Amino acid sequence: MEFFQALNVQGRVISALTLRETRSRYGNSRLGFFWALFEPFAHVVVFIGIFSALGRASPIGESMGLFILTGIVPWLLYSNIVGKVMAGLAANKALLGYPQVMPIDITISRVILEVATLILVMLFFLGLAVYSGVTIRIDSFLQMMSAAGLIILLATGIGLINAAIIPHYPSYQNIYSAFSRPLYFISGVFFTADFLSPEAYAMVQYNPLIHLVEWFRSGFYTSFNSNLYEPNYAISVCLGVFIVGLIAERKSSKRARQI
Amino acid sequence: MIEFRNVRKTYDIKGGKNIILDDVSFKFPENKNIGVLGVNGAGKSTLLRLIAGSEYPDKGKILRKGKYSWPLGFSGSFHGNLSGIENLRFACRIYGADIKYVTEFVKDFSELGKYIEEPIKTYSSGMKSRLAFALSMAIDFDVYLVDEIMGVGDQGFQKKCHSAFAAKRETSSVIMVSHSMKTIRDYSDVAILLTGNGLEIHEDVDHAIELYNGLTS
After folding, report:
1. pLDDT digits (tens, 9 = 90+) for A165-217
2. Range of the structural domain that residue B31 is part of
3. B53: contact with A, CB 8 A cutoff
4. Which residue, A54, A245, B109, B116, has most beta carbons within 10 Å?
């Protein structure tokens, strides 16, 4: 009984927080959701430009745009969630004055909004592709979802770990962003692992994100099956990071409530 | 009902710890209006936040039954970037209160006018306390936890608060922190003195105020 009551309260808190996040992100300016569409659009346009200047065709399928889209969506899922989870507590500290609002609720609501946003973004661009005459046949929806789910776990875990470290070492934030920037270039957003030289391949294969991007694409394309991704490696890294993140959250949440 | 069992609460300060409560076991008197007295830094606000559940003890347990308000104070639970209305809606959602009713009540009670649509960070402290008061009166609580904001605002608003509390007296009580001895006298049936070693309860509020004056001078 008490458990269900607590669950009910937490449900109310999370939905209230999600609403509040949505409103503050998209409600206050007319351009709101346009910006969510603009970022992936810009990536796609830039890479179409680069690839056509080099005279290269899409690594998979006919459509270059679709290829970049299936890389940029997982990437944004990762990097946006890390950023949002990391900054979540600082942005909502005042609301912790309400006893029923838990720090983890803030994280959950931010992840929900980010996932919902990217689903809409993905659907919008797929719709656009179909409208402009590209045929889309999704190979395995389940595989795409598995990869996306693991990205969510990984990103949430890293976000929580960062959020726990930053109050102790504020300069860590700069260190983190310096190290995470190159990640974009080694995560297979605009290439597949098959194109890499053996040396490069040996290096990037430990990056869990490239596994997940390739997994996501393997689910999307019937004509593509990645040789790189190993479900066992990706799953254990993501789960491990997520669990460490939850422990870090537990340890730091008591302190988070203090004014 | 609120009971502290072996509660310890400390704050990290430069070069050590500020101990606010050390292994305190204490049962708060029920259905009584309680004024909390203590010198600056003794931990009055922390005590309220512990009672509310906004902050957790380092050690020990806090048992509570009934519906406690969030600590109504200047620092409050309001989000600076959100408007008064948005903050109000948020509170309604997490307490499961009726948004329409609460909005009407708060608009009428708080006298904030069109400011209710403005972000909280533009509010004066008086306006914040008016909003906090109005909102907490609209959501029914068994115990109101009031941190310093009683006795703010003009005479008219003070009267309004007084009569709103008087109307709730049958069903609710208040635990309050204030630097104004007049406010403490006006509202409290009993006083709790934070001595630095623990909590002392005094049935005689005037006597507690005398002891408190002894501590401060």
Report:
1. 998 888 998 999 898 889 999 998 888 888 888 888 888 899 999 999 999 99
2. 1-69+143-159+172-217
3. yes
4. A245
* Pair type for strands B34-37 and B59-64: unpaired
CB contact under 8 A, B86 and A19: no
In a domain, B28, yes or no: yes
Q: Are residues B133 and B149 located together in one domain of the fold?
A: no
What mean pLDDT comes out for the span A212-233?
Answer: 91
Q: Three-state SS for B23? A: strand
What pLDDT band is residue B4 in, cutting at 50, 70 and 90? very high
Distance of CA B145 to the CA centre of its chain: 3
Q: Determine the residue among B94, B128, B146 to mutate to test chain A binding: the one whose Cβ has the most chain A Cβ atoms within 10 Å.
A: B94
A71 CB neighbour count, 10 Å cutoff = 27
Are B147 and B60 in a shared domain?
yes
Same domain, B130 and B194: no
In this structure, the number of other CB atoms found within 10 A of the CB of residue A67 comes to: 27
Please, is A128 exposed, middle or buried when counting C-beta atoms within 10 Å of its C-beta (0-12, 13-18, 19+)? Answer: middle
Laid out side by side, the sheet with B143-147 consists of B143-147, B173-177, B34-37, B190-194, B199-202
The total domain count for chain B is: 2
What is the model's pLDDT at position A214?
A: 94
Q: Which residues of B touch A101 (CB under 8 A)?
A: 94
Give B186 to chain A, closest Cα distance, Å.
27
ipTM reported for the complex surpasses 0.90: no
